[in-house]
Amino acid sequence: NCPLSLLVSVVLVGLLCLVFCSQPTSLDAAPLCTNAEAGCHVLSLANLFDRVIQHSARMHSISNDLHSEFELYFLPSKNQIGRVSRNCHTSNILTPNGKENAQRMAREELTEVILKLLVAWRDPLWHFHQSMTHFHDFIDFSSNKSLKMSDMVHELRKGVQKVVEKMQMLGILSNSVSSLMSPEAFLAPGSAEWRLMKDYELLYCFRRDSNKVQNYLKILKCRIVPEDGC
Amino acid sequence: MNIMALSLASNLLILLILSSLDWLPSPGSTFLTDWDHTTSSALIEPHFTECISRDQETFRCWWSPGTFHNLSSPGALRVFYLKKESPTSQWKECPKYIHSNRECFFDANHTSIWITYCMQLRTQNNITYFNEDDCFRVENIVRPDPPVSLNWTLLTISPSRLNYDVMVNWESPPTADVRLGWMRLEYELQYREGNTTNWEALEIQPHSHQTIYGLHLGKEYEVHIRCRMQVFIKFGEFSESIFIQVTEIPSTEFPVHLTLVFVFGTVGILILIMLIVISQQNRLMIFLLPPVPAPKIKGIDSELLKKGKLDELNFMLSGGGMDGLPIYAPDFYQDELWVELMEVNETEDVDSGEKEDNRGSDTQKLLGQSQPVSQHINISCSNSISGPDAESAQATCYNSDLPEEETLMLMATLLPGQPDEEETSLDTVERSSASETGERQLIQTQTRGPQTWVNTDFYAQVSNVMPSGGVVLSPGQQLRIQESISAAEKETKKKRKESEDSEESEERKQKEPQFQLLVVDPEGSAYSTESSIQQISTPPPSSPMPGEGYHIIHPQPVEPRPAATMEVNPSPYILPDSPQFFAPVADYTVVQELDSHHSLLLNLPSHQTPPSCLPQHPLKAPMPVGYITPDLLGNLSQ
């Protein structure tokens, strides 16, 4: 009896393995390439926009979380919105303040605004992260979001540059934007203003600016990639 | 003018006092913080109750005059706002009043996102009620409109017909520009059963559909949804409720039957398969796991090893007609001088009291006859001594220390059976033939030398019963005798302690075994045999052999010593090996080993038996007859 049952169980196991092992393996991730080389999976502009927008949404979410946690940890008193004494250092960048304004803006301008914002926040966030490393408790509390944030700004800027390149390649954007692509072009005289800002103010301002970037990207996509509802 | 100045002054004074007292709730703590209603009795100055944006393009603000009822008239309070878009911004008045609602509406032209607004209430007299906490950014005050077009569809009903799942669909509020992506919403669905007060909230997710699992049939459910902007906190209002109810569906017979059919069909098939497997188990087993072929000795048919075919086996082993078997069997019999036939006159009456005399006479006879045998024993023993156990064998062959009581071997001897004795039988096989009462039976003495004792079974098989009452013992089996002897020895010991009465004889008669054995103790050889047998393991004294007691009569006059020393010294009672070594009927012995010439060395099964007394000829197996049991044969087939 025992050998027979053993044999039957072995056969069953073999059958099960055949069933499950014969399933196709995971889909291979196609490598991305900007040039339409053979074997590359070329991303469409819409796809690029989607990725960038997703990234910016995540960046905005993290900045919001960090701002709330900062408030909870360092400033347990009430709403501090009115207490911000000075404007954000990015205030000199002219940004559309509404949907219609953004829609009316030229694509190149809008793209420029986005890039300017992203560039303007690279250094301040890095500095913020450095200053936060002294507060180990806060870092544990906020699970090191500041580092994530500064990385994300960097990544997002590169992503938007890729999108711009693609748009220029497709002829959607004029080449006037290219002059603004290098980070040196954004070194405005007021670029050191952020050093005067306190940490909380930095977070407060960045939360706003990340929301701006997210919305601008959405509007830009809607204008460039024809979609239902735009 | 005076009155007005007075009123103004009084108002200011009151304000000062109250503010100094500092129990006045902070003015302007309006929509951004919860309005504390516990201080309703206190003076509450005009404040903003709430500012809300529905679409992130416009917003509205509502104010309240507080307890200043004189300011409640429309126009008494004015709304001013400050847009902090530049350092030189200024306060501006509300672009559109809705006095009926005490509402200030900011249209798209006046609404800027990501810019801080501060709100202020001013009276006609430019008294300003302003709270720093009332500054906000429009994206933070967005509360979207509730979703619209709620509907539900039935997904599944559980097989138990008690629960069901429902998919709820809706659309985003039309005011929220979701398609552009200007507002990204996430929804929270809540449902409750009937009229209970607790709402069940499902997970917040951004899709415009959601499944509710596990609703109960027959009950009515109420569902409503609200939404908010992703990443932000403030929810909009709940939508209008929809009601879900699924009544009992009359169960169609088909699914039930189908289920039953499947279940029973499967069970039946399984039972059938099991029956087939069980009935054909052997064949299946043979098919899957072929049996291992049984061992086979070259030249010997395994059939011969079965019961009752010893003759053929002997024939074959003796080399008759078969090839491959070494012909050494005849050598077996060269030393078979230990088989002897002895007769004892049975005419003498043997009473219990005269037993000893009888024994004496018998013993003499036996001694007379056995002496040469014993001599022969000595001789043969000396011949046979070989091997590593030579010394012990020698000790056994010649006189040595008397063994303990346990190491006794019974020498079967013949005994004149008492006429009133019960019938005796040699063993179960011969029982029927020897059942006449009073018949004396001859038991052949196995007075063979210790060689025999040591190396072979010290038992013999009764192969024939003489008409005169003698018993012909054939070599090979003394199982019964030995088995019985051990039991008989116990009895005898008992009897030895008691006096020999007639009662005893009666007892004996009643308990008498089938036949009696007289332990012959030849003077010299007895000891020698004793000593020779001392090596043999003793059977456990408790080995019971009921019904087969052997009456052991001590050869008293001849050997007073043994009688007296029965307890002290090992009497000539030589107990055989423990019966466990012997099977009741079969003619066999244990094959001890296989020597270099592949001859079977058959030995006594006693482990104490020194195997040394082997015949010098290595080919000669000490066993007179090559009895081999099939299972033992298996061990030898190499």
Automatic annotation (TrEMBL), chain A:
This is Prolactin 2. GO terms for biological process: positive regulation of receptor signaling pathway via JAK-STAT; response to nutrient levels. PROSITE patterns: SOMATOTROPIN_1, SOMATOTROPIN_2. Its main location: secreted. Belongs to the somatotropin/prolactin family. GO terms for molecular function: hormone activity. GO terms for cellular component: extracellular space. Residues 1-21 form the signal peptide. The keyword tRNA processing does not apply. InterPro entries: 4_helix_cytokine-like_core, Somatotropin/Prolactin, Somatotropin_CS. The keyword Disulfide bond applies. Pfam families: Hormone_1. Keywords: Disulfide bond, Hormone, Secreted, Signal.
Automatic annotation (TrEMBL), chain B:
GO terms for cellular component: external side of plasma membrane; extracellular region. One of its GO terms (biological process) is endocytosis. It is found in: Cell membrane; Secreted. Residues 146-250 form the Fibronectin type-III domain. Keywords: Cell membrane, Disulfide bond, Endocytosis, Glycoprotein, Membrane, Phosphoprotein, Receptor, Secreted, Signal, Transmembrane, Transmembrane helix. This is Growth hormone receptor. Residues 352-362 have a biased composition (Basic and acidic residues). Its main location: membrane. Residues 347-373, 416-449, 487-571 are annotated as: Disordered. Belongs to the type I cytokine receptor family. Type 1 subfamily. One of its GO terms (molecular function) is cytokine receptor activity. PROSITE patterns: FN3 (PS50853), HEMATOPO_REC_L_F1 (PS01352). The chain crosses the membrane at residues 254-278. SUPFAM superfamilies: Fibronectin type III. Residues 1-30 form the signal peptide. Pfam families: EpoR_lig-bind (PF09067), GHBP (PF12772). It is a single-pass type I membrane protein. It comes from Maylandia zebra. Residues 363-373, 431-449 have a biased composition (Polar residues).
